[in-house]
Amino acid sequence: MSRQQEGQKPENDMIIADGVDSDVVEPSRRVFAGWQWWLFAIMAVAYTSFHLISLNVYPIETWTFRILHVCGALILGFGLYTGARFAENGHQLSPRWLDGLAAVLLLPALYALVQVFVMRQTMAGGAMRIDPTVETWHFGTPLIAATVGAIVLSWLIRRPRGSLPIAELVLMVCAAAASSYLLLMFNSPLRASTGTAFAPIGISWAAIAGSLLILELTRRVAGMALVVISAIFIAYVFAGPFLPGFLGYPGLTLNRFFSQVYTDAGVLGPTTAVSSTYIILFIIFAAFLQASKVGDYFVNFAFAAAGRARGGPAKVSIFASGLMGMINGTSAGNVVSTGSLTIPLMKRVGYPGRSAGAIEAAASTGGQIMPPIMGAGAFIMAEITGIPYTEIAIAAIIPAILYFASVYFMVDFEAARKGMRGMTRDEIPKFSKLARHVYLFAPIIILVAALFMGYSVIRAGTLATASAAIVSWISPNKMGPAAILRALQLGGTMSIQIIAVCACAGLIVGVIGLTGVGARFSSLLLGLAGVSQLLALFFAMLISILLGMGMPTTAAYAVAASVVAPGLIGIGIQPLIAHFFVFYFAVVSAITPPVALASYAAAGISGDNAMGTSVASFKIGLAAFIVPFMFFYSPAMLMEGSALQIARVAVTATMGIVLLSATVQAWFFGPVKAWQRVVMFLGALCMIYGGIYTDLAGIAIAAALIILQRRGRNGDDKPGVATT
C-alpha cells in the first residue's frame, strides 16, 4: 500500500505524517484502526499539548522536561513504526512463538519499572542512595535484558500493518522504566555525581537502555546511516585509548561515560534542547497549516503566480518547496509532501523524470537555509553559538537568495533550451480567486513580525500557530475543536522522526565533548591552515558533507558544528561565518552523491534512478557548494560590513549566480558554445568572489557575452538545441 493510499483513510487509520517515504526508508509507519487508533491519537494529542502547556503556561525543570520529551517520542515511535517489514506484499507472518517469547520479556520490563517506584519510596523514606546491588540486579539487568531482547525480536516479528506486536509494547515499557529512573535520580542531589566514580550505577544502566532505544527508533525513522555513525563514535569511547596519534585519549570507564552521556553533555544537550522547544513548536505550526489548508493555499498561490511561465511546475516547486521546507525541517520529508504534486506536473510539461526529481530535491533542500525558520537550523545555531536568533536570520538572507536564484535560473535556462511550455490557464488556480484569500498568509506574517519585534521564538511560534486556526474561521476550511485536535495529533506523529534524530545526534555530540576528539580535530585544521586556509576550508567542507550523508539536516549540522566549527574558529574565522559554512554543507549533503536522502526520496516519486537523480540535483544546487567559501572571503554576504558593501556583493553575486546557471545549462539568451561556457564560468566566479576588481572583471565578461548573443553570434543554431 502506498503512502498516498494510506493517507486516504481519515476515519479509521492513524494520520500519516509528512516525512521520509516508506519506500525510501524502511520500516514504515503502522496504521491502526478501532480502539488502537483512538489510543495513539489521544497519546499524540497529549504529547503535543504537554509541550504547548510546558512552554507557554506551566514551565517545568529543564532536564525533567527533556527526559519526558524523549520518552514520549520513544513510546509513540515504537507504536507507530515497525521494527521489520509488514506482513504484506508477499511477506509471510512470523511464527507465533516469537510473540510468546516477547510476552516473556514483558515481565522483566515491568519488573524494572516497578522497581523504580520501590526506589522512589526508599528515597522518600530518607535514604540518600540505593544499594548498587539492587540497582544492578533488580533494575539494570532486567531492563537491559528486556531492551536488547525486544529490539532483536522486533526485527524478526512480522505482523499486519494494523496490529501491535508485543515486542513493541516491551520497548515502550523499557522506555518508561529508563526515563522514570532518570527522572528520579536527576531530581535528587545524586544528579551532581554524574560523570564521576560516585554516580549511581543505575544511571548507567538506564542510559545504556535509553541509548539503545534511541538508536533503534532512529534506525526505524531515518535509516542506518546515523545509527552506524553513532555506533562508531560510541565504540571510539572505549577503543580510543588504544588508537595512535591525535585520535588517542586517556579513556573513560563505562560508568563514567554512560552516567554523563544522558545529561546536558549529550542526549539532553543542545540538540534535544532545540527539538523540545523550537522544533516541536514549528512542527505543530506546520500541522496547523496543513489541517487548516493554509499550506495548500501557499502551493496554489505559487501555481497561480508562476504556473504559466516556461517550465511552470518546476518554478512552482521552487517557491512551494522552499516555503514549506523552511517550516518542515527535513529535506526528504518536504520532497515527499510537495514533490508528490509537483514532480508529476513537471513531467507532464516535458521535464524528464530525473530533472523533475532533481529540481524538487534541490528546492526542498534549499528550504533549510531560508530565513526566518531555516528548518530549525537557525535555532540550533543560536543555541550552540549564543548569537541572537534575529542576527542569524538576517545573515541568512543573501545566501538564501543566491541559492534559490541559482535553482530558478537553472530551471529557466533548461526550460528555454528544451523549448518547454508552462501550464495552461485551465490547469492552474485563478489568481483573482486566490487573491481574495490573501489573508491566509497572516500566520507567516505574524510569525516574522513577532520575531523581529523582539518576542521570544516560543511566543512568536505559538501566536503563529493560534493565528492559523483563527484565520481558518474566515476561510472555507474552518477549524473546529475536532480539527484542532486532529492538528495536535498530526503534530505529534510528525515530530517523532526529528526528535529521534536529535536525541541520536546528542549521543554523538556527547562523545565528541567527553572524549575531546573535537578539540584534537581543531588542532588538525589549525595545522592545515598553516599551509593554506583554503585547504583547511576544503577539508572542513568534505568532513561536513561526510558527516551529513544519510542524516537529516538537524543532526548533520549538530554533529558538524561540534567537530568542524571549533576548528574553523581556531584558524581565525568569525563564529557566525564558521557556523554558516558548516551549516550550508550539512544541508547540501542531502543532495550530494553517493548518499543523498532528498534526491533518493525524489527518485522514488519520479520513478528514475536514485544515483542519477542525486547527480542531477547536485548540479542544480551547485551554487550551494561555492557560496560558503565566499563567506570567508567576503563577509558582506552575511551582512557583515557597510550597507554599500552588502548591496554591491548581493547584486554582483546574484549576477554571478545567473552566469553560473547559464554555464551549467549551456543556455543564456540562446545556445552557448563550449568556449563561451568556459569564459562564462570564470566571469561567474569573479562576481561570486565579491572583490571590487573581480566584480568589475565579471561584469565586463557578462556584458561581452550579452553583446555576443544579442548580435546573433549563435544565430545559426536552432532554438531548443544547445551548442557544445
From TrEMBL:
Keywords: Cell inner membrane, Cell membrane, Membrane, Transmembrane, Transmembrane helix, Transport. The keyword Calcium does not apply. It is found in: Cell inner membrane. Residues 210-639 form the TRAP C4-dicarboxylate transport system permease DctM subunit domain. GO terms for molecular function: transmembrane transporter activity. The chain crosses the membrane at residues 37-57, 63-84, 96-117, 137-157, 169-186, 198-217, 224-247, 267-289, 392-411, 438-458, 496-517, 524-549, 555-573, 580-603, 615-634, 646-668, 680-708. It comes from the Bacteria. It is a multi-pass membrane protein. GO terms for cellular component: plasma membrane. Part of the tripartite ATP-independent periplasmic (TRAP) transport system. NCBIfam families: TRAP_fused (TIGR02123). This is TRAP transporter 4TM/12TM fusion protein.
